[in-house]
Every structure is written in structure tokens, then in C-alpha cells.
Amino acid sequence: MDGILIIDKPAEWTSHDVVARIRRVLRERRVGHTGTLDPFATGVLVVLVGRATRLAQFLAGAEKEYEATVRLGYATDTGDLTGAPRLAEGEQIKPCVAWSTEEIEAALSPLRGEIEQRPPMYSAKKVQGRKLYELARRGMEVERQAVRIVVHELEARPTDGALLSRSDDGTCELCVRVVCSAGTYVRVLAESIGQNLDIGAHLSALRRTRAGAFDLSQAVTLEQLNELAEAGRTVEALLPLDAALSELPSVHLTFEDARRIRHGAAVRGGQESWADGAPVKLYTDAGSLLAVGVYEAARQSLRPRVLLVVEK
């Protein structure tokens, strides 16, 4: 069984839990995902099945889109709702201010575009071979090097006609839509929004609505997948392999060139406008996706990088 599943991940499930469940439902060992979602988060999780797992390298850096809820009033030690309030002894939750639309926009504006972001301690990022969250659970904090990310879009979204939704404890919530590069920590964005408003903040809800070319309109729940599997209709949920490569250029090979590609040899082809090393979809003359190759500009040739059909 080969293809791509777009799963609407439920809350309280780790991405690893989802992969393990799919392995059991499909009775397929080769299953993997292309980008972790925190357990409390929901939404698009791209899962690769069978030969599709060989395409993970082409999807890991895909742009992401989220709907996020930022709670303003106090920070937490994890940056999200799963953590403990980060308040000094005797300190109370700081009540929200009646920020204007202009003040909220001023808090969001510096976070757009190319910015530097320091990974949070409660993350799977590794420092000297150790995952940061393992160190954080031991009460340790280590230096983390900031990385460059890109926030393409960051906008406040009204709820019931108002930007701020107030709670009885004095906190309030701000809903935002985020379109960002891979590697962006939305919970750090939430904390930064709070800092720009001079108040503690954390992420209280997160839903991924898109990962690269895949969005919620293509997603199925684990319950729906299980029902399809029991009815022998799993294929209805699977997207074809080349759905993961929709933005790549393509070449249709002759019978002889396809034979050479199957054996790992390069063939003449490509376009001078392509960048050296650019990935290219390679199809057989019958229209089947055979491999993903790379364009070698100096030789004007195509060399197989990931073979998707083995020689029979």
C-alpha cells in the first residue's frame, strides 16, 4: 500500500501515536509523518505510507498555516496551556487591558517577515545530542541558538465581532492566523505577542490548517480511516505519490531512459532554466511516477535520487 494520508490529528495524541495507530489499521510497517504536532494541537498531519516514505525529504520544509489562540494574562513554563503559570511568588494574573485594534496590530507587526526565534526549552530540538524537553523536565535550562524563520502572514481574527475575548479570571484571548516557514514555534510567537503588549502570554489552542499543498479539506479523522479500512476502501483516503511533489517540474522518459534510471544511471534531459541540483519528477512513457531525480546543469542530465519503482 503506497500513498499519502492527510490526517486531522485529534487533541491529546502525539504524532507518534497517530503513526502507530495507522500502522495497525493499515497493517503496513512503512508509515511516517512529515512534521510533528504537539499533543494538545489538532489539524493537518501529513502521513506517508509505503513507498511514499521515501519522499519525506521533499516535504519536511513545507510552509505551514495555523489558527492559534493566544491567552493574555500570564506566561507558562512550556509556552502553552499544558504548562504551569510562570508567576513570581505572590504575583497575580495581570488583567487584560482594553487594547485598541491599532495597539494589537503594533504588537503583531514586528513579528512578520524574516525574524530570529529561539527554540523553547520544551521542544524536541536537540542540543549536544539531548532533546531540550528532556533537560527542561529535569529543571535544566541551556543556551539555545536563535534560528531564522519567516512569518509570511500574521493577522488577528475577530471572535463574535471582537478581537479580544475576556474570561472571568481577568485573562483574555486573541485569535490569530499564522502562515510561516517550517521550524517556526507558534508558542514562541504567542509569548512575543504578549511581550509586545507588556503582558505575559501563552498558547491556549493550536490548529494546523495547512502543511504545504495539503489542507483540512483533504483530511480524514482516525475514526473515518478505521471505517474505510474495515470496509476495504482505504484507497479512498490515499492521495497518489506525486501529490507530494506538485510544485516540482516533470519529465516523461523514453522506455530506454526509464530503464537506465531504474539502474541508477543518468540520462540526458532537463531545461537550462532549471537550477543545478533541482529535484525533478521522472515519469515513464506510460505516465507512472518512476523516480525523483536531480538536474545536473553542467552535463544537462538527470540523475535518479529517489527510486519509487524497483526493477522487476
Can you describe what's shown?
With 312 residues, the protein is an alpha+beta fold. 17% of the residues lie in helices and 31% in strands. The strands form three sheets. Strands 1, 2, 3, 4, 5, 8, 9, 10, 11 and 12 form a ten-stranded mixed sheet that branches. The protein has a five-stranded mixed sheet with strand order 13-15-16-17-14. A hairpin with a 4-residue loop joins β16 and β17. α1 packs parallel to α5. The model has no long low-confidence stretch (mean pLDDT 92).
Task: Tell me briefly what this model is.
Helix content is 17%, strand content 31%.
Structural class comes to alpha+beta
Distance between the termini: 17 Å
User: How many helices in DSSP terms?
Assistant: 6
Mean pLDDT: 92
Which residue ranges are poorly predicted, with pLDDT under 50 across at least 5 consecutive positions?
none
Number of strands: 17
